[in-house]
Write a structure and sequence with these properties.
Blueprint lengths: L7 E3 L6 E3 L16 H15 L6
Antiparallel strand pairs: 1-2
Pfam family, one: DUF2256
Protein name: DUF2256 domain-containing protein
InterPro entries: UCP037205 (IPR017136)
């Protein structure tokens, strides 16, 4: 298969397109992020955005 024919997705964190990889063959539907760095970054963004209410 040629590189231009591979499926691609957009990373929700950095907004860059990334291509299908052989190691994602069985779980391509579950892949959301282009890299481990973006996956970790997404988790920290969620944690910062939730914030805990202050206790009296």
């Amino acid at each position: 298969m040629r590189r231009t024919e591979l499926p691609s997705k957009l990373c929700p964190v950095c907004g860059r397109p990334f291509l299908w990889r052989r190691r994602w063959k069985r779980c391509w539907g579950d892949v959301r992020y282009c890299s481990e760095r973006c996956r970790r970054s997404a988790r920290t963004r969620q944690a910062k955005g939730q914030g805990h209410p202050e206790r009296p």
